[in-house]
Amino acid sequence: MKIKEMTLESDYTPKIGDLVCVTWLDVNQASKGWIEREDIEPIALEVESYGKVIKNTFETIVIASNYCKPTDYLSERFNGILTIPLHNITGIHELKMQPKFETTIKIDENF
Questions:
Q1: Which of 15, 23, 33, 64 could form a disulfide with 91 if both were Cys (CB 3.0 to 4.6 A apart)?
Q2: SS (H, E, C) the chain
Q3: What's the pLDDT tens digit per position in 65-82?
Q4: Mean pLDDT over the full length of the chain
């Protein structure tokens, strides 16, 4: 299923380039070595991941936690890439950025 066909509590549909928080279920492999069946505690971990949507498919959404804008010398670059299966996603919402502001730094000339 493609991301825009997901049924979640929110009506939000992520688009490429959106900053998002994805809540999803991850595996939990806390055992060290061999373990007996009755000692197994099947617990999934709920994780929050934050990043820029860089791709979505019928089965996954891909986010990157680091983004570098293209320059005259390099194409756009991504790092901290996370591919999350859609069936593991329990929630997703867009992160709103605050407007950019300009600041003036005063330098003490007597320093």
A1: 23
A2: CCHHHCCCCCCCCCCCCCEEEEEEEECCCCCCCCCCHHHCCCCCEEEEEEEEEEEECCCEEEEEEEEECCCCCCCCEEEEEEEEEHHHEEEEEECCCCCCCCCCCCCCCCC
A3: 999 999 999 999 999 999
A4: 85
Instruction: Please report the pLDDT score of residue 65 as a whole number.
Output: 96
- Give the tens place of pLDDT for each residue, 5-54: 444 556 788 999 999 999 999 988 766 788 888 888 888 899 999 999 99
Strand partners, 67: 78
Euclidean distance between CA atoms 5 and 53, whole angstroms: 16
**Residues 79 and 54: beta-carbon distance below 8 Å:** no
The tokens for 87 are 């069936």
Tell me the pairing of strands 77-85 and 89-94: unpaired
This prediction has a pTM of 0.72
